[in-house]
Amino acid sequence: MDNPKYIYFLGIGGIGMSALARFFNNASIVVVGYDKTPSPLTHTLIDEGIQISFVDDVDSIPKVLLENKTDSLVVYTPAIPSDNKILNFLKAQGFVLKKRAEVLGMITAQTVNLSVAGTHGKTTTSCIVATILQHSDMHFSAFLGGISTNLASNYYYQSAPSEHLSITEADEFDRSFLHLKPQFAVITSTDADHLDIYGKREELEQSYQEFAGLVFDKKNVFVAYGSKHLITGVTYSASNTNADYYAVVKSRSGKGTHFSIYNNVDEAPIEDLYLNIPGLHNLENAMGAALMTREAGVALESIRAGLENFKGIKRRFEYILTTEKVIYIDDYAHHPSELRAIISSVRELYPNKKITAIFQPHLFSRTQDFMPEFAYELSQVDELLLLPIYPARELPIEGVTSEAVMELIRLSNAQCVAKEDVIAVLKNREVEVLLTLGAGDIDRLVLPLKEYYGY
Question: What is the mean pLDDT of residues 155-168?
Answer without folding.
Answer: 93
